[in-house]
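name: query_chain
kind: protein
chains: 1
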Amino acid sequence: MRRIYLSVGLLLFACLLRAERNKTTVIPGVKNVSLPAPILTSVNPAIAKVGDTVILQGRYLSETSSVSFAGQAASSFLVISDTVLQAVVPSSGTGTISVTTTLGSATLSGFTHLGPRIQNNMPSNGILGTTVTINGFNFTDVLEVYVGSLQASSFTVVSDQKITAVLAISSVSAGGVKVRTINGTAEGGFFLSGNPDVRSIIPTIGKQGDTITIRGNYLFAVNTVSIGGIPAASFTKSGGGFNDILSVVLGQGSSGQFYIQSPSGASYVGFFEYLSSIQLCPFANTTLSAVKSGSYYQWQVNKGAGFENVGDSAIYSGTNTGTLALSTIPTSYYGFTYRCLIDNQFSNYYVLNFKNEWVGNNQSNWEQAGNWSCGTIPDANTDVIINAGNVMINSNVTCRSLKLGSGANITIASGYTLTVTY
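structure:
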């Protein structure tokens, strides 16, 4: 019996010594039992390329949850036994191999990846056509080169340690440098292009005469701006390379992307919704054109709560054609915005306005329909323009807006009011 107690005592002593070196865990029914963290002793082969399988040997590897090569996760791995792992080499990873289990991690240095490695690139900025030199290792059998987040227009492998790449036109001008070979991929460095680099467009919807503010980098040399293929009426520039501003005045335009060009390159960016203002007399007729051609047409209207499809009715006809006809439109439709869905794209946007201009044909009374260009008396949804003349108001009248010229005078009889709602 003494020998049995002695064996148990020696076992407990050995466990206590091991606990000093390893993590502890809890096993049901057993207290303070120590289990070891993983250990890596070798990798074979120690030189490999992407897709190769290497054998990792060590101890306590059965609970492995991840394997990485210089911080890059292995493409896959397989636990063979408590002492052997198989791991598939990722696209890069020269340096240290790491294995992680539920009880800790282990590392092993000395692994060499046959894939490319990037040390630096020069210059770190430039414009369309700039030649960039990429320095590194293992530049053999190169398939692709990316500079500034866009594939280089051409590249030359000068040696195993040097590549020259020509910068392509780019709307995404900032980014890293990437080299892909048959043995793997390397990423590193940083490049900022001198091509127009747009960061924001405010607003993204407007009509002729509106000013659009475009912010970004390398906009100071811009010489062409168009929207939906139609040149802007004018634009001004401020800045000197970074945080530049373009102030663009819309002319007669079309919905579509902004096209911004400078001597260094060009960019297609964003999407602009061009509004055509349709000015009508109350209860007038008009037609709207989709302009673009397609096989499917569906006109839509936004009454203030989002666009919805419209169908033929007493007011609408041609709702599934390239031309929408509107008949006897009430002034309550003021501000309604229309567009046509043509296959997978939209037409220009059209917004309805009602305008009535003073002509003063019948004395000076506001209440005389013959004094107005539309032959009707303005109502609460009508924009009123009086460029010249003396106008007398003898009742309570309302209009949406009122524009007076320098030669215009309005007299309101006692007890009555003129209400402008906008």
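note: The two ends are 105 Å apart (CA to CA).
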